[in-house]
Design a protein that fits this description.
Layout lengths: L2 H17 L8 E8 L5 E9 L2 H6 L1 H9 L2 E10 L20 E10 L2 E8 L2 E8 L6 H8 L4
Antiparallel strand pairs: 1-2, 1-3, 3-4, 4-5, 5-6
Length: 147
């Protein structure tokens, strides 16, 4: 397992414990993350915002990203199945009959990105991704380190 994925898993578990299993958070949050000598993670909440993109582009958040060993970004929302690429996916996930509440933690530094998804209806299992995520949120996280 890569260092960034190991850090992401430990960070997500620590945040999960701190949140006491909550999945309906009104704001996205940013944390600074430091890995200690015995590989324990220290997680400190630094900022939050009702809009994850505003959080990621805020000057203070950018300075946190530059000054931290890693950052973690936490956001919650709805996920819904996509049957195929040809499907008409006009229905927002929040209105889909098979919607699931999801919490996403993205851990990043200038060298890489890893993300952990946890669903409210399957709290004991996580879904991981190491650097393969695509889309506007993935782009916004990566841009934090190039500004």
């Amino acid at each position: 397992m890569s260092k960034i994925m190991e850090t992401a898993k430990k960070t997500e578990q620590k945040i999960h414990d701190l949140l006491e299993g909550k999945f309906d958070l009104p704001k996205a949050s940013m944390y600074s993350v430091k890995v200690g000598k015995s590989n324990e993670v220290q997680v400190v909440k630094r900022a939050d915002n009702g809009d994850v993109y505003d959080l990621l582009s805020d000057e203070y958040s950018l300075s946190v990203a530059k000054d931290s060993e890693y950052i973690a970004v936490l956001t919650c929302g709805w996920a819904a199945p996509v049957i195929s690429d040809d499907d008409d996916n006009e229905l927002p996930p929040s209105q889909h009959p098979q919607r699931r509440r999801v919490r996403l933690v993205i851990v990043a530094n200038p060298k890489g990105v890893a993300s952990i998804l946890r669903f409210s209806d399957d709290r004991d299992n996580i879904v991981t991704d190491e650097g393969n995520a695509r889309g506007s949120l993935a782009d916004a996280v990566q841009e934090m380190f190039t500004r």
